[in-house]
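Section 4.2 – Deliverable D4.2 (structural model, holo form)

The reporting period included a commitment to supply a predicted holo structure for the target in complex with tetrahydrodeoxyuridine. Inputs used:
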Amino acid sequence: MKEQTYDRESLVRAAFEAQKHSYSPYSNFEVGAALLTADGRVYSGSNIENASFPAGICAERTALFTAVHEGVRDFTAIAVVGKHKEAGQFDYCAPCGICRQAMTEFCDPETFEILLARSPEDIKVYRLCELLPLWFTSKDMEIR
Ligand code: THU
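Output (structure tokens):
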């Protein structure tokens, strides 16, 4: 398996910066994400909620869709951080199922890394295929 070489701590720091922009008055759960492109750029996102709850979006998809909108489709990793705004400390915040599925559209599940962090020094690293086994892609819809 290809070893990823990038600065994980910096990517997590970008996720903490992004978390400050969360608009989450309904859950009060503030999430930030930082998505690293294959050419070294970082797109960040936060969760943006809505009075009509399903209209909200997670931090991971905010970052992913912003990048895709700008024409970027090659990604290396995403860092995610989140906590209730009253909580004193962060715990690992894993992407929801919809975000994992959204990632498979543009990220190679075998190599794309998902960083869950409690601090820039306390990071758990997963590959997307570990968090979404038997992922569904356009290949599954081919007529055989
Ligand atoms: N949320 C994210 O943005 N990312 C995650 O990884 C988990 C959940 C958001 C969605 C919603 O705004 C709030 O956290 C509570 O579910």
